[in-house]
Amino acid sequence: MPPITTDPTLLILTAVLAYLLGSVPFGIVITRAMGLGDLRQIGSGNIGATNVLRTGNKRAAMATLLLDAAKGGVAVLIARWLLAEDAAQVAGLAAFLGHLFPVWLNFRGGKGVATFLGILLALNWQVGLAVCATWAVSAAITRTSSIAALVAAASSALWMLYRGSDSLLLLALVLTLLIYVRHAENLKRIKAGTEPRIGRKPG
């Protein structure tokens, strides 16, 4: 963690605002706006880009991916611009929690992969790009979004150590742990060999 230099009241305010931004369910908003139905009744019921892709609309999936990533990145960049690096990390964590546990959806949100990538890109673009590349290579090899996400998340701490970004390491470990917790059902299906491939509806 970086040195705590921001006033605690401002850190709390940052966390609240970042959480609210992170909790905006762009997947649901986009699918409804495009007349694709209620995303929670489609595929796995998840609100992220992978499940949006199961509607068959690639533009909707791409928009969801970009907006889910952007809300994490924007929270970090605004907090860094207005306050300091400690506030940026607090904002990143709060936005991530907002996506996972959105107040608007009874705290039943997504799995956080796109938001995680957006946060990393904003905190350290080199590490963020390396983790994105890890996801892309893993997805190309396994054709399984969840495996790619888990591999990419696990690689984040290693990339930070490699780049000398020690101040980001604790946050990366916390976010990675949360991603693995949210992928508990995916891990069971991966072990059973029943995890759906990218672009296919779950069986």
Brief characterization of the structure:
Helices cover 69% and strands 0% of the residues. The chain is mostly helical and 203 residues long. Helix 7 packs antiparallel against helix 8.
Could you describe the 3D structure shown?
The longest helix is centred in the middle third of the chain and has 25 residues. The protein has ten helices and no strands. The chain is mainly α and 203 residues long. It has one domain. 69% of the residues lie in helices and 0% in strands. The model has no long low-confidence stretch (mean pLDDT 89). The chain starts with 7 loop residues before the first helix and ends in an 11-residue tail after the last helix.
Topology:
Layout: H1 8-22, H2 26-33, H3 49-53, H4 58-82, H5 85-100, H6 113-123, H7 125-142, H8 145-163, H9 169-182, H10 184-192
Helix pairs in contact: 1-4, 1-5, 2-4, 4-5, 4-6, 5-6, 6-7, 7-8, 8-9
Q: Round the mean pLDDT to the nearest integer and report it.
A: 89
Query: From the helix content, strand content and strand pairing, which structural class follows?
Result: mainly alpha
Quaternary class: single chain
Rg (CA only)? 16 Å
Helix count from the secondary structure assignment: 10
Overall structural domain count: 1
Residues in β-strands, percent: under 5%
Main β sheet profile: none
The residue ranges in which pLDDT falls below 50 over 5 or more consecutive positions are none
- The SSE string, one letter per element, is HHHHHHHHHH
Number of strands: 0
First CA to last CA: what distance? 42 Å
Helix content: 55-70%
Looking at the structure, what is the overall shape? Answer: globular
